[in-house]
Design brief:
Elements lengths: L2 E8 L7 H9 L4 E5 L2 E7 L5 H9 L6 E9 L1 H11 L3 E3 L3 E4 L11 E4 L12 H12 L7 E4 L5 H8 L5 E5 L2 H13 L5 E5 L12 E5 L2 H14 L5 E8 L3 H10 L2 E9 L2 E8 L1
Parallel strand pairs: 6-7, 8-9, 8-11, 9-10, 11-12
Antiparallel strand pairs: 1-3, 1-4, 2-3, 5-6, 12-14, 13-14
Amino acid sequence: MDYYELRFRLAETSGDSDMLVAFLGDIGFESFVEEGDVLKAYIQATDFDENCIQNLSEESLKGLYTSYETELIGDRNWNAVWESEYDPVIIDDRLIIRAPFHRKPDNISLEIIIEPKMSFGTAHHETTRLMLRYLLDIDLTGKSFLDMGCGTASLAVLARKLGANPVTAIDNDEWAYNNSIENMANNNISDISVLLGDAGLLPGMSFDIVMANINRNILLRDIPVYSACVPGDGLMLVSGFYTEDLLSITECAKKSGFEPVDHRTENNWVAACFKKK
């Protein structure tokens, strides 16, 4: 699968890149990397419409960046970039998320091995780290678990290693689906159910814990669907949105039968935990 990389030169007066990321996320961009005054944004080639960028530039994005460049990145190009730039991520000295080509430290017993392709979920993003920390703090033994919008399936893999069973991972991107299966093999796990699709697959299913690290709009649409899958006292953990969106996410969760437990933040990104009434 080919992707476009857009490199935005941020304006000095823009303050930060959060607003630009939010707008780009709404029009289909999947992942972002900020390097100094440059924001790199990635979107599937089949979803890219440069007219959308030009229209936004004339309206909402005015003043957020000074220029941008576009480059088409093929599969092999992308993997080569990741292998040269991808670093392992260590979570609270308890967990390492590493690629197969990284060495495992002797002092960390828990690891997730991720083949770093385009799939979201390599733990370099704040929302993935927030969700991984939640998992490390929850007793998952014998709990049925759903990783919705799984990306690399890092959350599903960690949940299974921590004792969750059965574990299901769902993503509507075929690349993520295949990468999830690959990452199961990397971690010597064979019993995670990986499905290609979206929340339309969920009716009739039941989970003690649902995790969804997606984005604000999809969460607001699908939280009622998650609610139907979670029994009383079950947990829903969601991320992929900003602090200013927490109120609307919480209101949607309450209307769907959840009550807030707590939330965590990192660099204005939020992960929130809710309990089914």
